[in-house]
Amino acid sequence: MQISLQHQVALITGASSGLGFGAAKALADAGAAVVINYNSHAEPAETLAAQIRDNGGKAQAIKADVSNEDEVQALFKQTVDTFGALDILLANSGLQRDAATVDMTLEDWNTVIQVNLTGQFLCARAALRQFAEQGPRPWVSRALGKIIHMSSVHQVIPWAGHANYAASKGGVDLLMRSIAQEVGAQHIRVNSIAPGAIRTAINAKVTDGEDGGRKLLELIPYGRIGEVEDVANAVVWLASDLSDYVHGTTLFIDGGMSLYPGFQNNG
Ligand code: NAD
């Protein structure tokens, strides 16, 4: 089945690498005009935008720090100034600052919460305001707008040495479900994706480490590390009307990592 997002506008945060980059490419392949947000690495975002335009699509790379209120407002304004509307937000930006809790600095705690949680709030709020202002666009989608939060299996799996990250993703879960409860009546669809271990820079150390990711594979019943496309394909589906009745839920894309694989052989 071919999914078309023709005439829709998608904004993807943190799209100069990894899952955001792959999702921006997939959304553009499905026909959406895409805003490729980046914070620190302009080059990959600009190159992807140019490639999409060369292939006849619509794309614009825009710099913004998602944890900064003014920059988020400017990002959404520039998106609408460029493409005239917003239909899809993929709030994807995220980072890790790992340490045992006993050694964790307040700065590392705050950085992770500000980007992974406050950033998701700021972007979702800006999207909700834009959806309300532009009103229904029934020729492009049954929904008034769609928000997809990038969460993690660590919204449910505790993670020693990563308390700030796990807390931020646990927060994303209730942020997403609270917003979904709040705006469902306006036909705004809000969902999360919770990836397991996907081969990107954020976890290159474990996926491409000395043992070739063998230890990690013990945590994945399906027996392989995820690829960016595994998540990007789901983003396209969640952004499309094929998932029109999917609201307030988290789609785990983890090869079964959240199935407590330690209990596989009698616990
Ligand atoms: P990544 O490091 O390649 O991507 C994260 C992106 O966020 C980067 O492009 C980075 O520049 C951007 N970013 C960081 N701070 C920002 C800020 N202040 N403003 C705007 N952008 C900012 O890693 P990834 O794996 O692609 O991660 C994407 C998302 O997926 C993250 O939210 C991450 O927590 C989540 N995730 C990834 C995995 C995985 O296995 N790769 C698993 C679970 C969840």
How would you explain this protein's 3D organization?
The structure is a single chain. The protein is α/β, with parallel strands linked by helices and 267 residues long. The chain has a single domain (9-254), classed as NAD(P)-binding Rossmann-like Domain (Rossmann fold, 3-Layer(aba) Sandwich), CATH 3.40.50.720. Helices cover 41% and strands 14% of the residues. It has helices at residues 18-29, 42-54, 69-83, 106-134, 163-183, 204-207, 214-217, 228-239, and strands at residues 9-12, 33-38, 59-63, 88-91, 145-150, 188-195, 250-253. Strands 3-2-1-4-5-6-7 form a 7-stranded parallel beta sheet, sandwiched between helices. Helix 1 (18-29) links the parallel strand 1 (9-12) and strand 2 (33-38). It is globular, with a radius of gyration of 18 Å. The model has no long low-confidence stretch (mean pLDDT 97). Nicotinamide-adenine-dinucleotide binds next to helix 1.
List the helices and strands and how they pair.
Layout: E1 9-12, H1 18-29, E2 33-38, H2 42-54, E3 59-63, H3 69-83, E4 88-91, H4 106-134, E5 145-150, H5 163-183, E6 188-195, H6 204-207, H7 214-217, H8 228-239, E7 250-253
Parallel strand pairs: 1-2, 1-4, 2-3, 4-5, 5-6, 6-7
Nicotinamide-adenine-dinucleotide is lined by residues 13-14, 16-20, 39-41, 65-67, 92-95, 115, 150, 152, 195, 197-198, 200-203.
